[in-house]
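Why do we care about 3D structure at all? Because function follows from shape, and shape follows, mostly, from sequence. That is the central idea of this module. The next example makes it concrete: a single protein chain, its amino acid sequence, and then its structure expressed as tokens.
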Amino acid sequence: MEAQIKVTGQNDLMGWVRKHGTEAEKDVKRIILNTGNNIRTDWMQNLAKKVKSTTKSKQSIQMEITKNGYGGTVFSGLDELTFIEYGTKPHTIRIKRKKVLANVKTGDVFGKKVEHPGTQPKPCLTPAAHKHLNKMENDLLALMRGNK
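And the structure:
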């Protein structure tokens, strides 16, 4: 699961950067880096609010900036975060190694299979990405207009 950080109107932006030099380039790369960090932070905070998240799930959320600094990705390789974000359809859970399915904590025994009703989506990444990508676009436009 990931959110791509891409600059739309990149040709216009790159032309503006070439025209305005190194300081402009640093400003653009700083905005992109901050956007990635903010998406990552909000994703972790949203996760903590909506589900009983583990340290493992929070630590799995990473951010990488492209080599040229003009893009990036915020991502996690944990399948469970995809299930939280988008929910799951009803499905059958079958035994794999045990004789029966059971909840050890509660002592409930379910048998050889369970018809799971599915789960509702609890978006954590999507709202964070929308919020900060919109802000990034506004920040870049303000920078290009000279309204740092």
